[in-house]
Amino acid sequence: MTWKPHVTVAAIIERDQQFLVVEEHTEQGRRFNQPAGHLEDGESLTAAVQREVLEETGWQFEPKELIAVQLWRKTAEHPTFLRFCFSGQLIQHESDRSLDPDIIATHWLSRAQLAENPDSLRSPLVLKSIDEYLKNQPLPLSVLHTFLDPA
């Protein structure tokens, strides 16, 4: 069997020192996470994060910077994730849009509120991503290059 990490994207979106998070159903119960998800075939990383934010929050999102690239595995028995974290701005809310079925609600929470109960987080990457954002050392999107053959 060939080992492959799961490639995912996440959006770190701040407003008034609070971060947009989704409350979602997981195998471990209700958890908080950034709007995030898997890269799909034929999709650029920026297109993936735009799609995931829209599907999970109803917000159109414009990525502006790359915050972090993270490689994470919970234990040797779990899959490995290669996660690209972006920051950017919300453009427009589609309030009548149906959200992904696993999404319970969206919330604006401070880092301190999220840190109060680390067991409520989808993974330790939730706080680590916020901390990377708060360091204010982003990379420009120009570091990303997409070379996909058209179908």
What would you say about this model in short?
The protein is of the alpha+beta class. It is 19% helix and 42% strand.
Structural commentary:
The chain is α+β, with helices and mostly antiparallel strands. The chain has one domain: Alpha-Beta Complex (Nucleoside Triphosphate Pyrophosphohydrolase). The chain has three helices and nine strands, in the order βββββαβββααβ. The strands form two sheets. A five-stranded mixed β-sheet has the order 5-1-7-6-9, with helices on both faces. Strands 2, 3, 4 and 8 form a four-stranded antiparallel β-sheet that branches. Strand 2 (14-15) and strand 3 form a beta hairpin. The model has no long low-confidence stretch (mean pLDDT 95).
Summed up, the helix count is 3
The main sheet orders its strands as 5-1-7-6-9
Helix content range of the residues, please? 10-25%
CA radius of gyration is: 15 Å
* Coarse structural class: alpha+beta
| Domain count | 1
SSE pattern, N- to C-terminal: EEEEEHEEEHHE
CATH topology description: Nucleoside Triphosphate Pyrophosphohydrolase
User: Major β-sheet, in short?
Assistant: 5 strands, mixed
The CATH superfamily is known as Nucleoside Triphosphate Pyrophosphohydrolase
Low-confidence stretches: none
How many beta strands in the DSSP annotation? Answer: 9
How far is the N terminus from the C terminus?
Answer: 27 Å
Q: Strand-residue fraction?
A: 35-45%
Mean pLDDT: 95
Q: In one word, what is the shape?
A: globular
